[in-house]
Amino acid sequence: MEFFEEKESNRLHWLTEWAVDCAVMVALACYLVFCFGSRIEMNGSSMKPVLESGDVVLMNRLSYDIGKPNRLDVVVFEREGQQPGIKRIIGLPGETVQIKNGSIYINGELLKAQDGLGEATIAGAAEYPVELGEDEYFLLGDNRESSEDSRFSGIGNIKRENLIGRVWLRFQPFSRLGFVR
Predict the structure, then answer these.
(1) Is 46 a catalytic residue?
(2) pLDDT (tens digit, 9 = 90+) per residue, 20-79?
(3) Do residue 69 and residue 91 come from a single domain?
(4) Same domain, yes or no: 25 and 46
(5) CB 58 within 8 A of CB 34
(6) Catalytic pick among 45, 68, 87, 150
(7) Residues of the domain holding 156
């Protein structure tokens, strides 16, 4: 009789361990998907050529929970009453941004960036120096001629609390699968 009770006890112990392991794995998978796999679809042409309209990207939420946004990061930000937007960080908190003669200046110094990211022919509000608050970012689309961004009153400077996360991977269309930089 003791043999059957011990066997039943071992089976119950094994089943409990298995259930706990499964619950932990499901919780971990949900956490990882939430942090690294939030799916966002690009709408419009403001981020061409890096992102095309209809591209689907993954956003890393955790990167800004434990770290801070950096210049030239491609980010997802919240807009009141609209879908989240995707733009590139140009100006950081406390800096002054100005666009003159087709070039971007940060604190009076020319922004040195590859692939034309330091250029903008349309200055908008940045025709005059734009001073960023201690929790504000200046965002621009990569397609500077066709982007509503921090240069315009519809978007303006973006507060830190409105930055949702950093775009890190384009996974659709599969023909353009790759990291976003």
Answers:
(1) yes
(2) 887 778 777 666 666 566 888 999 999 999 999 999 999 988 888 888 999 999 999 998
(3) yes
(4) no
(5) no
(6) 87
(7) 40-179
